[in-house]
Design goal:
This protein has 18 helices and 16 strands. It is an alpha/beta fold.
């Protein structure tokens, strides 16, 4: 009978004169188990140990190739995961998590060297944010937005010594060596210029509006990552508020201003609830000085009796979710006041933030229904600076509003990058010439030519021209000669609440 190897091993272990040595090799280490001559149960125990060690040794030796393969595969997987974790798929920039690791690492090194009295290398953090990115996505599709982000990321990574990360969405962060504000501003503007040239040359991305950049310095402004990001973001916020497309450096006053804005926002929220707001109405008249409409102007008097300037609190509202609530309050109040005014037409201002939000049209329709009003009783005023960047979505919205019966007015024309194509292309009914032109009509040839040109175009397109800021009879006559058909200003009455002041007595005739 053929004897198996395990039985032979057991028989050897039971021999009284035998000394058994078993070597087990596992992961490069040797283990030895030895028996000495003896009698009784000990040989049986030794035999069991020997068999067990042998089985373990055989198993480990047989599995070593498989273990090596698994370890190597795991290493490759870890490498791929690390790469995925470090780089953004779309742009190739560092991911948010990896960028923050780099940022915090550099700041930690600065702090360490400061503690030890050693020299250190300061640096600058820039936050880049694409202006009107949502409009770009909504108007031209996500492929256009992705193309802008990919180009931005690629071009930024080509800049010497820039460490670039994508923090999320359309926001990027860049670490730049040094702290020379002038040099950094120059390099940033040069980058924006070259980026804009490339994007505008591409039909897919030519609707790109621009990029705003907020800048903070380390360690001068902050030596902790979260604080440095907050201050760069604060500078970015201030830059966007003052016109976008700018490179803005953080300074201490920004923090105080932000705190003041937060207080205004809280107070305004309370004012809406406590009914501290009011509408004042300013008359709009025709060439015969007959009142044809009123413009509703929002006013706020706080609990102390202090009047808060509209330019202050409306800008704060536009930068928060309050603008939608504020806009609805104004429109609802105008609807309620219509019966108390001796006019059939009220002009209501719509902010750019409202125009960009999807809820504007449903809100207007709902309030009209709840107050039993008609859209034909209202003019919606939008400023030139809002409409000059209008995309197809805004064009469609304006068309829908006009289809409901609203009239659309282009307000403050002449204050921004005035383009006569706005008059031609936008679905508008009224153009309001800014008071800065009307008040110079008597002596300024350029103002006369500009207003006359607008008047000619408006007449040919059947658009009513309104002269704003009329304070003297001479100004009104000059505006009338230039083509104005409606007039608004102190000559015909200041804005006043319903309980006082002279308001228009006649209703608007159809155009």
């Amino acid at each position: 009978m053929k004897v198996g190897p395990l039985k032979r091993l057991r028989d050897l272990a039971q021999s009284e004169a035998m000394c058994l040595a078993v070597s087990c090799v596992a992961s490069g280490s040797a283990f030895a188990a030895t028996t000495f001559p003896g009698t009784g149960p000990l040989p049986s125990l030794f035999s069991t140990v020997a068999v067990g060690c042998s089985l373990i040794a055989f198993t480990l030796m047989a599995s070593r190739p498989r273990m090596r393969t698994a370890v190597e595969a795991g290493a490759l997987t870890t490498e791929r995961v690390s790469e995925d974790y470090s780089r953004d798929d779309l742009t190739g920039c560092l991911t948010r998590r990896r960028f923050l690791e780099v940022l915090n690492g550099r700041l930690a090194e600065i702090r360490r060297r400061q503690i030890n009295g050693l020299p250190y290398d300061d640096f600058t953090l820039m936050l880049l944010d694409v202006d009107h990115f949502k409009l770009l996505n909504d108007g031209f599709g996500h492929h256009a937005g992705d193309a802008v982000l990919e180009t931005l990321g690629r071009r930024a990574q080509q800049e010497a010594d820039w460490v670039v990360g994508r923090l999320g969405g359309d926001e990027f962060a860049v670490i730049v060596p040094g702290n020379d504000h002038r040099a950094i501003a120059h390099d940033a503007r040069r980058f924006l210029e070259r980026l804009g040239e490339e994007l505008h040359a591409n039909s897919e991305t030519r609707a790109f509006h621009g990029i705003s950049i907020g800048v903070a310095s380390a360690p001068a402004d902050a030596d902790q990552g979260s604080d440095l990001l907050k201050k760069a973001d604060m500078a970015l916020y201030v830059g966007k508020r003052s016109g976008r497309g700018q490179v803005t450096f953080y300074h201490g006053d920004m923090q105080r201003k932000q705190a003041a804005d937060r207080q205004i926002s809280r107070d305004l929220h309370a004012a809406i609830i406590l009914n501290q707001l009011d509408l004042h109405y300013q008359p709009i008249v025709d060439v015969d000085r007959r009142g044809v409409a009123v413009e509703a102007l929002l006013r706020w008097t706080d609990q102390t009796g202090r009047s808060i300037p509209p330019d202050t609190f409306i800008q704060v509202a536009e930068r928060s979710e309050l603008i939608d609530r504020l806009g609805e309050w104004v429109f609802r109040k105008a609807c309620e006041d219509l019966d108390l005014l001796d006019v059939d037409l009220i002009s209501v201002n719509i902010s750019g933030a409202q125009l960009r939000h999807d809820g504007l049209l449903p809100m207007l329709v709902r309030v009209l229904r709840e107050t039993n009003r008609s859209a034909s009783s209202f003019i919606l005023e939008l400023t030139e600076t809002v409409l000059i960047n209008a995309d197809q979505k805004v064009f469609r919205l304006l068309g829908d509003l006009r289809a409901l019966g609203f009239r659309i007015a282009l307000d403050d024309f002449g204050t921004g990058n005035s383009s006569f194509t706005l008059l031609r292309d936008l679905p508008i009914d009224i153009v309001k010439i800014d008071k800065s032109f009307i008040q110079r009509l008597e002596n300024d040839r350029i103002a006369q030519v500009f207003v006359s040109a607008v008047g000619e175009i408006a007449k040919s397109l059947d658009i009513v021209m309104v002269a704003e800021g009329v304070e003297t009879q001479t100004q009104q006559e000059c505006a009338r000669i230039a083509g104005a058909q409606r007039f608004q200003g102190w000559l015909h009455g200041k804005a006043a609440p319903l309980k006082s002041g002279r308001l228009p007595e006649r209703s608007l005739r159809s155009r």
